[in-house]
Design goal:
With 405 residues, the protein is an alpha+beta fold. It has a single domain, classed as Butyryl-CoA Dehydrogenase, subunit A, domain 3. It has 13 helices and 7 strands. The protein has a 4-stranded antiparallel sheet with strand order 2-3-7-6. A 3-stranded mixed sheet has the order 1-4-5. Helix 1 runs parallel beside helix 3 and helix 9 runs antiparallel to helix 10. The longest helix is centred in the middle third of the chain and has 38 residues. It is globular, with a radius of gyration of 21 Å. About 3% of the residues have low confidence. Flavin-adenine dinucleotide (FAD) binds next to strand 1, strand 3 and helix 13.
């Protein structure tokens, strides 16, 4: 049975994270939106120190995202929602294993997980990143062209990766790592693709650009070039044997962990906008009167209530996907449903919020216009809106990816 009653300690942690979101993130959100490539090191240091303290009190807490059975993805979703209520861009800059860590957990052997994740327990802030997207490959991740060729005791990587979240922080600004998807043999298609860990400072890896973006501007999004970049053989995550389909499946399993968390990010941004609208209307003499029949609601009340319904539906889908993941259940359908729904809902809610507030909503005086810009990324990364809908359609209708693409 699914029980979404949150444990008291989760509620307590959510309150704590809410206070962080309110006091530490909201207060600097505008600054780091305006100053896109400036990095908030005070914030990094404070968040790192807090996570070290928490890890001491609750071993492994910093590493939970992506843990399989017995994991705490529902709790992570609750906490991520709180932080993204504070600021989604800043949330993406918080030091930690991130998407790179999720890939290590999804595809790495126990020994590799221990070894590569050890760096996230140190004194200094560290970031992990994951690089899949290339100039000619995004939605169709099987079209990766970055190559990995074995030369003696090394893999030699060559290729260009773009739009890598926290790529600069992981590859240049900390003792971090980037998990790079590369193909061992393009003729094998998906089956030839494997994830490789490239540590900061590895010769041949260089950050060549950091993007200027519409939203989540506090977060660095890097283009990284790999030029004869040599990594030891055991930096290939998981089984190096080319078993058809198995390798790619392991890699795709990363998304089963991360899509519910990205959906929770979206929900946090949507809730920020909705809370603001509700409070604004109440302060201006138009509080939302709950419990009225539809025929007696004002048009404004009907809009806000509909926004709330949609946000709650997205949250329930998200928690279900995370709950299944924690129990080791196959959740790729539910993870895509949550991600697609949350992306659509947050985009709509934040646009409506700008609209309902009129010129004030459009002004940079408030964060509402920023939330609208931040929201849109949820329809793009970790599988676009269309790709997640495609996955849902395939699973519901029983088609393979070759049959429905
Ligand atoms: C801010 C930001 C951060 C990112 N972070 C990362 C990261 O950390 N690591 C990483 O590897 N990548 C990252 N990405 C890249 C992101 O995952 C890709 O942009 C995304 O997967 C889309 O791929 P694409 O850019 O090649 O677009 P395309 O695949 O070319 O898609 C363009 C459009 O076509 C649609 N489309 C494509 N195929 C189909 C289809 N079969 N059916 C219907 N519609 C389709 C898409 O939905 C989209 O609307 C990030 C992107 C951004 C903007």
């Amino acid at each position: 049975m699914i029980d979404f009653e949150l444990e008291p300690q989760v509620v307590k942690r959510a309150e704590l994270y809410h206070a962080v979101a309110l006091n530490m993130m909201r207060s600097i959100a505008r600054k780091y939106d305006e100053e896109e490539h400036t990095q908030p090191w005070d914030f990094f240091e404070a968040m790192w120190a807090a996570s070290r303290q928490e890890a001491g009190a609750q071993p492994d807490s910093a590493e939970r995202q992506g843990a399989r059975a017995g994991g705490r993805s529902v709790e992570t979703a609750v906490l991520v929602e709180e932080m993204c209520w504070g600021d989604a861009g800043l949330f993406l800059t918080i030091p930690g294993p991130g998407l790179g860590g999720a890939a290590v957990r999804a595809a790495g052997t126990p020994a590799q997980q221990e070894r590569f994740l050890a760096r996230f327990k140190g004194e200094r802030p560290v970031w992990g990143a994951m690089a899949i997207t290339e100039p000619g490959c995004g939605s169709d991740s099987a079209a990766v062209t970055t190559s990995a060729v074995r030369q003696g005791d090394y893999w030699v990587l060559n290729g260009t990766k773009i739009f890598c979240t926290a790529g600069q922080l992981a590859a240049e600004k900390s003792d971090g790592l980037v998990v790079v998807w590369a193909t061992l043999d393009r003729s094998l298609g998906r089956a030839g693709i494997r994830p490789f860990v490239v540590e900061r400072g590895t010769p041949g890896m260089s950050v060549v650009r950091v993007e200027n973006k519409l939203g989540i501007r506090a977060s660095d999004t890097a283009a990284i070039v790999f030029e004869d970049c040599r990594v030891p053989l055991d930096h290939l995550l998981g089984d190096p044997e080319l078993k058809r389909s198995a390798g790619f499946k392991e890699v795709m399993a990363t998304f089963d962990a991360t899509r519910p968390i990205v959906a929770a990010m979206a929900i946090g941004v949507g809730r920020a906008a909705l809370d603001f609208v509700r409070e604004f209307l109440a302060a201006h003499g138009a509080p939302i009167r709950y419990g009225l029949p539809a025929s007696r609601q004002t048009a404004l009340e009907a809009e806000v209530v509909e926004m709330e319904v949609q946000l709650k539906a997205a949250r329930l889908l998200t928690w279900r996907a995370a709950w299944m993941f924690d129990r080791g259940m196959r959740n790729n359908l539910e993870a895509s449903m949550a991600k697609a729904k949350a992306g659509r809902v947050v985009t709509r809610i934040t646009q409506k919020a700008v609209e309902l507030l009129g010129p004030l909503g459009y002004s940079r005086e408030l964060l509402v216009e920023k939330w609208m810009r931040d929201a849109k990324i949820n329809d793009i990364f970790e599988g676009t809106q269309q790709i997640n809908m495609l996955i849902v359609a395939r699973r519901v209708l029983g088609y393979s990816s070759a049959e429905l693409s």
